[in-house]
Specification:
By secondary structure, the protein is α/β, with parallel strands linked by helices. The longest helix is centred in the N-terminal third of the chain and has 11 residues. It starts with a strand and ends with a helix. The protein contains 9 helices and 19 strands. The chain has 2 domains: about 140 residues, Glucose Oxidase, domain 1 (3-Layer(bba) Sandwich); about 200 residues, 3-Layer(aba) Sandwich (Rossmann fold). It has a 10-stranded mixed β-sheet, sandwiched between helices. A 7-stranded mixed beta barrel has the order 1-2-8-6-4-3-9. Strands 5-7 form a two-stranded parallel sheet.
Length: about 375
């Protein structure tokens, strides 16, 4: 096995073995607490520019397959695991995780104490790091990590948003159940692509929506010219304050069509009404985050992936806070009733994760039906 090093900007280093693609990669080192679903995590565009550490000890045991990709390729720039399974023991597997990352040019590191790394990130915060199997000294790699620009202020959306509009009418795949009848597409929805996951728009189709996906910089006039029943604001990577003109575009839509935002879309909606966002210490990434719905009193276990959050005080009097994270009481949902607009910080499409919050897609169609 080829030796590899993870070097963090604060000077901490970890030595293990390389897997996937050999070489060197730079990114923000974060962790995800999901026990499975690594393929969906790797292909989530919200991980642009990040090295994802899996907190669960063994990864790769179910291999990878074409159906579970959330986008055309992995967007995480690196992956760190404790124990890498060399066997892909699943009837759906097409190739191993090692081979999958190698084919896509993603650098991996295994054989380190990921519990120690996760505890370090929780204490010191997410930070820039380098994975290298090129034989450079640990000191040189630490210095490279220190020079790397952080996530704040970076527009990561423009580079991954679709370059041109396209129509999407593909429902969710029937992997474990018999094929379902094709949904009746009663609603026209325009989705701003800030870095969307495929499962989101598949669930919109399941709910009866014909989805037109447009670039993140699409002018409001072009969106309204399509006469949509509603507008969907997708997830995406990085700092919501750095997405060019996104908040102004959403502000111009409010009150004219129903709006539903998820993750980065939730943060952009908050900024559209004059709210502010901030960088979290280490963010929320995993499939086990408890969220309380303040409207019903119910608690949902949710999938999450974000490093920024909405400042609750900044939206007071402008929107109703509808959901709170029970671990740290950060804002997890907003509603602007007069504008028929709402958003959530978490991922109701799961993929991977629990399905507790999938009812929100029906809530969106109900808003459009009024």
């Amino acid at each position: 096995m080829r030796r590899a090093i993870l070097a963090l900007a604060d000077g901490t280093t970890f030595e293990g073995q390389a897997f996937g693609s050999t070489g060197e990669t730079v990114g923000e080192v974060v962790f995800n607490t999901s026990m499975s679903g690594y393929q969906e995590i790797l292909t989530d565009p919200s991980y642009v520019g990040q090295i994802v550490t899996m907190a669960a000890p063994e990864m790769g045991n179910v291999g990878t397959n074409p159906v579970d990709d959330e986008s055309a390729r992995p967007h995480a720039v690196g992956m760190v695991v404790r124990s890498l399974s060399e066997a892909a023991s699943n009837w759906r597997a097409a190739e191993t995780l090692d081979r999958y990352l190698h084919r896509h040019g993603v650098v991996g590191l295994h054989g380190i104490d990921t519990r120690k790394l996760v505890r370090h990130i929780r204490t010191r915060g997410a930070q820039m790091g380098v994975i290298s199997s090129e034989g450079h000294s640990a000191a040189a790699l630490v210095e490279r990590a220190r020079r790397a620009p952080g996530m704040e202020g970076q527009d990561l959306v423009t580079g991954i948003s679709t370059p041109k509009p396209y129509l999407f009418t593909e429902p969710s795949p029937s992997v474990f159940t018999p094929a379902r009848p094709a949904p009746q597409l009663r609603f026209e929805v325009v989705a701003y692509d800030y870095g969307l996951k495929k499962a989101m728009i598949q669930l919109l189709v399941d709910a009866g929506c014909r989805v037109t996906v447009v670039p993140a910089a699409t002018p409001v006039e072009e969106v309204l010219a399509k006469r949509p029943n509603g507008v969907f604001l997708t997830n995406g990577p990085g700092d919501p304050a750095a997405v060019p003109d996104a908040d102004r575009a959403v502000a111009a839509l409010l009150g004219r069509v129903p709006v539903f935002g998820i993750c980065l879309g939730h943060q952009i909606l908050a900024r559209a009404i004059g709210g502010t966002t901030y960088k979290m210490k280490f963010g929320h990434r995993g499939a086990n985050q408890p969220v309380k719905d303040l409207l019903t009193g119910k608690v949902e276990i949710t999938a999450q992936n974000h490093g920024f959050a909405v400042d609750a005080a900044s939206v007071k009097g402008k929107a109703k806070v509808t959901h709170l994270n029970l671990n740290d009481h950060t804002v997890e949902g907003l509603e602007i009733p007069d504008a028929r607009a709402f958003s959530v910080q978490y991922h109701p499409e799961s993929s991977p994760g629990p399905h507790d919050a999938r009812h929100l897609f029906a809530r969106f169609t109900q808003a459009m039906a009024r």
